[in-house]
């Protein structure tokens, strides 16, 4: 039986120990059939940072999993020092679930990790969605640390959630959509995830900086279908990276949302869910 709408706000936390000795926290919903869809979250994100409208919308058609990286939230272990090692962690989680073929949605840093999964386990992935993200060595990705630190200070002084500044435009529409998004993240009332530690957050930032300055990957060798999505004013991972990445994948598709920032897929969740479901089911 398929999950009802808005199930993500109530679905239970689960745990599984992988062969690498790490116990991962995850949530699972949707009909348990077909190719599973694994969601990789952004910098400092945990299970509660996924927009429930996006997860529920995807789970109407698919078997969906969200997961905490090693050393984050309710998962144990220590944050690993690179995107490549985070990818190996996620492969270990997927293998612990006994899946040999999955689809992946990677948002922001999760998109970096997803691309590295192609490097370490290319046969594991059937289709991939890369949102609010860019390629290794992409334009200004190394500035994420500087931007995050600056907006974190601004958020403290304005008593505002930092995602308001990092994820959305500062137009009237962007401010309204940011407020709506943050309210949706609060819909879960019980069994919420643990906030990332400062040490783990800084370790992720360091890994992103190294990713941003690393040698670009050869994306032309990957023949899988890839959907790239972003807002037209992403300041964390500048939007030109999305356009470039979609061209570099032989079977890349691109969707850009207007008057939207880093979290365009959350701002336009209805449109994104429809596009993503069509892409995955086509």
TrEMBL record:
It comes from Lentilactobacillus parakefiri. SUPFAM superfamilies: alpha/beta-Hydrolases. InterPro entries: AB_hydrolase_1, AB_hydrolase_fold, AB_hydrolase_sf. Keywords: Hydrolase. One of its GO terms (molecular function) is monoacylglycerol lipase activity. This is Alpha/beta hydrolase. Pfam families: Abhydrolase_1. Residues 36-266 form the AB hydrolase-1 domain. GO terms for biological process: acylglycerol catabolic process. One of its GO terms (cellular component) is membrane.
């Amino acid at each position: 039986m398929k999950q009802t709408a808005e199930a993500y706000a109530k679905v239970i936390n689960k745990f599984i120990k992988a062969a690498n000795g790490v116990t991962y926290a995850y949530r699972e919903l949707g009909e348990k059939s077909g190719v599973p869809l694994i969601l990789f979250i952004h910098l400092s994100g945990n299970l509660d940072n996924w927009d429930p409208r996006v997860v529920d919308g995807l789970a109407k058609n698919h078997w969906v999993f969200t997961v905490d990286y090693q050393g984050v939230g309710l998962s144990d272990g220590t944050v690993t020092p690179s995107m490549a090692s985070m990818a190996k962690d996620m492969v270990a989680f997927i293998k612990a679930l006994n899946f040999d073929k999955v689809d992946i949605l990677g948002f922001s840093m999760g998109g970096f990790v997803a691309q590295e999964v192609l490097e370490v386990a290319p046969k594991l992935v059937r289709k991939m969605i890369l949102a609010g993200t860019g390629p290794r060595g992409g334009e200004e990705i190394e500035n994420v640390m500087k931007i995050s630190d600056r907006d974190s200070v601004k958020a403290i002084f304005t008593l505002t959630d930092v995602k308001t500044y990092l994820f959305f435009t500062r137009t009237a529409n962007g401010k309204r959509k940011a407020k709506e998004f943050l309210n949706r993240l609060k819909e879960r009332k019980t069994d919420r995830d643990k906030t990332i530690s400062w040490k783990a957050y800084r370790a992720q930032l360091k890994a992103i900086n190294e990713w941003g300055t690393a040698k670009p990957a050869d994306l032309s060798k990957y023949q899988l279908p890839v959907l790239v999505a972003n807002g037209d004013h992403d300041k964390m991972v500048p939007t030109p990276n999305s356009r470039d990445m979609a061209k570099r994948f032989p079977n890349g598709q691109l969707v850009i949302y207007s008057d939207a920032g880093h979290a365009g897929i959350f701002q336009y969740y209805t449109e994104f869910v429809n596009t993503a479901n069509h892409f995955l089911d086509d």
